[in-house]
Amino acid sequence: MPRLEHKHISLAGINIHYSRAGQGPAVLLIHGLGTSSATWSHNIEPLAAAGYTVLAQDLPGYGDSDKPRSLRYGPEAGARLIHDFLDTLGVDRVSLVGNSAGGLIAGHFALDNTSRVERLVLVASAGLGHDVSWTLRILSVPVLGELIYQPRLLRLARVRNKLFYRPPPSPNDSMLESYRSSSHPQSRRATIQAIRSCVTLFGQRRRCQIQDRLEGLPAPIMTVWGAEDRYIPVSHAYLNGRALPQTVVRIIPECGHWPHMEKAAEFNALTSQFLDGQLDDVAGTQLHEVP
User: Fold this and answer.
1) Hey, how many other C-beta atoms are within 10 angstroms of the C-beta on 111?
2) pLDDT tens-digit series, residues 106-123
3) CA distances from 4 to 1, 33, 40, 84 (A)
């Protein structure tokens, strides 16, 4: 198994922590809100072993990266940071794999930098439809969001368990690291600000829905979803499959909002096949469930 390295880099004075493993074409993994690159801990080394240089950063506001109060935490700012990150590392072309809000960030980057993107994998991605869970809608409400988004309340409500179809009996190391990240006051602030940039009490803002713009993207796209996602409905995957003829759509049964963690083996095999071009001949065909 390729050796996993933890590194830091400064981008405009912001200290960014990232992980790196492997050699080959670059693949960047982008996590969602209220967590960190730890959610990719079951994917980095297997994808590196498949022949890729795999990068996974803690976005600003999360994990071991800086959490400046002055920074804007919407998807556009996230895409600009990805641009600076890749430039600083000297990565010219990259495949992007983004989960939830990380998928929306990946989509923005791909649309703004079409010549740099080899392939795009959207994992239970934001930005593909109007509906989102009532949890996210309520957190978008001023004052109410701050009152609810507290570590103790979240644990009592078992909010993290709702990310899975079958929650693990006890938190694994990745989940514990995610708890640590989301407990930091500035991480909570970043999460709420990011939610409000794209979500209201009525659903996802129209300006954050990018599905129609993705139709012109030259890079191949794969959409992966857990069939039992409670945060962003699986119907968005079906809508994406019908709207984008270049898209490969895979639905993983008995799986929630984090397919890359809950069904890591299936996800890694699927993603490796897509990155290698093995699924290009099925783009635009009927949707498939992963066995």
Assistant:
1) 16
2) 999 999 999 999 999 999
3) 9, 23, 12, 22
